[in-house]
Amino acid sequence: MLKQYPTFVKIMLLILSTTIIVMIMYTVTIQSSLNTVRSDIQANNLNRIRFSVNSLDASVEQLSMLAAALETNSKVALLPAIDLMDSFDQVKLIGDLTDKMTLQSFSEGWTNTVSIYSPLLQSWIGQSPVKLPSPQQEQSNSWTLNAEQQQFAFYRHHSGYTIQVSFPVSNIREMLDQSVVDTNDPILFRPGMIPIYNEQSDKNRADKLLERLTPLLTQAEGTETLSVDGVSYMVNYLRSDSLDWYLIDYVPLDEALQPIVQTQKTFYIACVMLLLASALTILFLYRKVQLPIVTLLKGVRLLKHGDFSYRIKRASRNEFDILYDSFNDMASQIEELIENVYKEKIISREAQVKQLQAQINPHFLYNCLFFINNMTRLGNDEAVTAMTQNLAEYFRYTTRLNEPVTTLEKELSLVANYLNIQSLRMNRLKYAIALPESMKELAVPKLLLQPLAENSVVHGIENKRSASYVRIEASETVDGYQIVVEDDGKGLSEEELAALQARINQVPDDSVGCALWNIRQRMLIYFQEPAGIDFIRNDNGGLTVKLYWTTR
Known about the structure:
Largest sheet: 5 strands, antiparallel
Number of helices: 12
Mean pLDDT: 79
Helix content: 40-55%
């Protein structure tokens, strides 16, 4: 069905493909913008938490250096032998060390405490001399969180003393509060430990995210997209080298990408409206353009198949009405012209047929008269009588010029009569005629086959003593009919066959016979092409003449 509407289909495909291409291009653009925004958010968040972690590590490293600075102090070196001092010297040493640690603690930006534990005194020296456990079990040179005390502590163990530097969790929380920008939520987290939140943190949401993030913390830094309660979050994390905790920051993607997502929704709504408009446009084109074109094509096809009476009665209420009127006028003129030309063609055709028959009748008559004359001189009265009767039948048959067409059965009856006469003249002449029942009433021009039978006898068999038969066979082919006239006479060479084939395609002159040319011309007049006459050498040395025409 679509083959009937090629223009409409092309316009429809053009509109749909244009719309689809625009949607694809915009979708790709939107997706690229979303990816770019995600990359920017990720980069900004990573840079922010990287800055925060670097600041954290720098502050923690400075605190770690306090322990190293105390190790170089000469008074600290006296602690392994403090039990050998008298009470005054012990009190003075403890006082000097306390002042030293207090001074160093105040020199740092973060709130912190520096203390020294003496196993000989079994007590702490410095800002936290009481309520601190013995540091013997604490790991050296690393920061650990005391959940009860809510502080991070760093220990350096030596023979005779242990240096502790600590700072409260409030320092971390204050740093996290300073890192809050817009909707982000920074958290300090270590698997297995209680997270440190900022003051504005949504702990319930943060705990759900941390639960899903914990199995993914396999690298020092990274970014994950996690969904909690139907909301997608971009989670960035970076591990602090000094504390071995992760600084985690997350932002809701929906809020960050909301302008682009809203634009995307607006565009898709516009695309739906564009598709609806395209459908209305296609419907309008179908009714106002395609249907009128189909109507015109129908009229053209009918004219092509000979129905010149067809008129378009449809009204389109547009420019096609002018085309309809023009088509109807053209069809009327063609119908009138065809009728006039057809009549003239029939008259001309009948005149040409009568002229061809007039040319062939004398040719046959001359041959018959010469035959009668010869038979009379030979005293063959029977042959003369048969020929005379044949001439009477022949002229009765051919003088009906108002009926130039006969049936194949009647035409072959005339040929049989002629061959019977020739067999009387030549005892050796034998003939056979085969005509299928289905071809007996087939319409053919008069005197189409008699000249061929005459040529077989006169030019073939009479010129060859061993020749004796003529065979005529009519048959149906795949797309038409054919009639074969075959003899075992003298025949023609290949050069003579080619010359004969070329000669019948030219108008004959006085030096060349016109019978074969007339046969070919009448076949071209009466039958559809391809139609014609072929000459073939047969296996018996004679000539086979084949007439053929199509019924398509």
